[in-house]
Amino acid sequence: MSLIADRNLPLRNTFSLRRKRTPSKAPSAFSETVSTITLGLPALVAFALLWEIAPRAGWINALFFPPLSQVLAVLWEMIVSGQLADHIGISLQRAAIGFLLAVVTAVPLGFLMGRYSLFEKASDFLVQTLRNTSQFALLPVFILVLGIGEASKIAITFYAAVFFLLINTIVGVKSVDPLLVKAARSMGTSDWDLFKKVIFPSAIPSIVAGARLGVKTSLFSVIAAEMLAAQSGIGYLIQNSSLMLETDRMYAGILTLTIIGLLLNYLLVAGERRATHWRGSGESGPN
Amino acid sequence: MERIAVSAVRKSFNLKPGQTVTVDGVTSSRIAVLDGVDLTIDSGEFITLVGPSGSGKSVLLDVIAGLTEATSGVARIDGVEVVKPHARTAYVFQQYALFPWRTALQNVEYALEVRGVPATERRERAKDFLHLFGLKGFEDRFPSQLSGGMQQRVAIARALSTDPQVLLMDEPFAALDAQTRDILQSELLRIWEQIKTTVVFVTHSIDEAIYLADRVVVMTARPASVKEIVKIDLPRPRDLEIRNSEAFNAYRGRVWESLRDEVGKAQRDWTLASTYAN
Q1: Membrane spanning segments where (chain B) (predicted)?
Q2: What is the extent of the structural domain holding A198?
Q3: Residue A203: its chain B contacts at CB < 8 A?
């Protein structure tokens, strides 16, 4: 079942596969990280250098592509003045509220749909239709209905995350091993315990994988929404700087977003590992 | 003293829509698996069930376990009809059925947990049972970190931790290699000698059936009923060498003879059996 395949699997998973095949000479996690950095760093450094040199040498227009050092200087300025923290805070807050609302909606709903086929049949068409409607296309609707304030931004992040969570919850619930259910029943497990102690834990890896995708789309959606209709947030910062032709500010905003994305991905992968640590050392996430 | 009484148990399943079977010229969308099984088992007895593949031995266990309802007939434990899983019946499966997200210790605790045994008490009990099966030091391993034999030891420890009166085992050692299998058979007997619970053990192996049992129940090909019951008069405690004895050989010949015709029938019935197995 791979309705939603994660194309963003971290590179590390490939390494752990290799490690599994050659257990005798397995490098430690630390030396692996070191080799990943030493091998990967040159390309990144080259990119940074190009960014620095190209506008200075006049290869590209410095108005559109200010040198990296100038961007970093502006970024530092915004960090010191607290301006950046405000934008980050509001964006993350919007994404987090929308995402959490998606979790509390999608997980119970997913359990019902995964567990009761009649309920799934009744709701499947509607879910598929809504799922294939872009959250960005709906932004004008959210604005009309909810106004231009916070609610419409939270709505778009909610909408972006809810289907990843819903579908992965359904998949997780359906993939529970029938033998485990049988074994649990034979031990006199009540319906509630069956749900809590068997179905839920076995669905966790799938739900967490859905959450990982959901968190990212929530964040990206809020940025897009802020670009279109907001007076704050990183999306607004980027869009507004662009309009004002303050390209150094604009790139500072984009860099901020990249750093947040990287950190978030790292946290989510770590969280996913924690949630599935019982799967054994060589394996990575579900699907 | 009589513990389990199975009387005239029939069980049939509905086939998938569109599928039918023809038996003796009659076409039907239902398939009969158990055809009037009668069996009484005394308390403390070790019974093994042998029969051709797909003959419904596991279904019979499910009926005794209260996991599936007989189409007609009843199974009773201590005179009470089984309609839902009995608190003092435990079940061990071929594929271990351990919860992969729980450690060995937590898996054993599970059975006690759903019965409401307080945390400290169940932890102690679970530890004792793991130690009984030689799993000291493996309490905090996840099933994925244990060998097949160890996983099945955990599953049996889990089953026995609730002090069951009836232990149902569905080909518990079939997935293990030959040596591990021998070791676990001996371990099971050693522990059973101490607790003397009633065991109903399904197997494909005639040797295993004879080695373990007080009585070997030979089932017919599907739809299954009891073909013959062979009483095994071998001294206990038994060690593995007993399999080379003349008496054991004689039992082996006897059970095989009884089983042979049924296996032949089951093979002719193979295409049918494979459709029902799904």
Answers
A1: none
A2: 63-279
A3: none
Q: Does the beta-carbon distance from B90 to A190 stay under 8 Å?
A: no
pLDDT at B82 over 50: yes
pLDDT digits (tens, 9 = 90+) for A90-110: 999 999 999 999 999 999 999
Query: For the domain that residue A219 is a member of, what is the CATH number?
Result: 1.10.3720.10
Q: Provide the 3-class DSSP secondary structure of residue A130.
A: helix
Per domain, the residue ranges of chain B are 2-88+164-277
Of the partner residues A179, A180, A189, the one whose CB lies closest to the CB of residue B114: A189
- Give me the CATH code for the B2-88+164-277 domain, please: 3.40.50.300
> What one-character-per-residue DSSP string does A135-147 give?
TTTTHHHHHHHH-
User: B36 Cβ partners below 8 Å, 6+ apart?
Assistant: B8, B9, B10, B73, B225
Please state the domain count of chain A: 1
B93:A185 CB<8 A? no
Contact A155, A221 (CB under 8 A): no
Least Cα distance to A280 among A196, A205, A170 occurs for A205
Rounded Cα–Cα distance for residues B61 and B214 (Å): 18
pLDDT, tens only, B219-278: 998 888 999 999 999 999 998 899 999 999 999 999 999 998 888 887 776 555 455 544
Asked whether the beta carbons of A153 and A223 are under 8 A apart, the reply is: no
